[in-house]
Amino acid sequence: MRITIFLLLSFFSVLSYASCELEMASIRTETLSLSIYDEGCANDQIVIDFATKDRESSKFESSIKVPFLSECALTKDGFKCNAKGKTPLAGATYKKVKFGRSWHDNSCGDGEPNYDAPGEKYICVKGCGKLTIPEYLIGNDGSC
After folding, report:
1. What is the mean pLDDT of residues 127-143?
2. 85 within some domain
């Protein structure tokens, strides 16, 4: 299990300096808030945490946490989610690509900021037809 967590963290290119909880990828739209992150030092588990907006009240419902490995599997250059999964990523395949510059300074308070670090994005390349499946996720490459 620890090897799997290490591989996931390596894959999502995340470094931690000040915090145990790491956000790896996320998207927030008018109808969906979704993050992939590890749950911190006490729990060696990567989760998909999502909430959809309630049509009646226009507020986000309570978030739902699902273990990443029960929904998705890593591929050579991204990840693929089970079509029968419980998350908005169900049935989608994502490919990691370089995208612009990192939104984060990558210093985490213990060094010089590096605003020139490349950013990354996960683009949906298969199973993207449903309205509930995000076209892309922003990679959070250096969240503290």
Report:
1. 79
2. yes
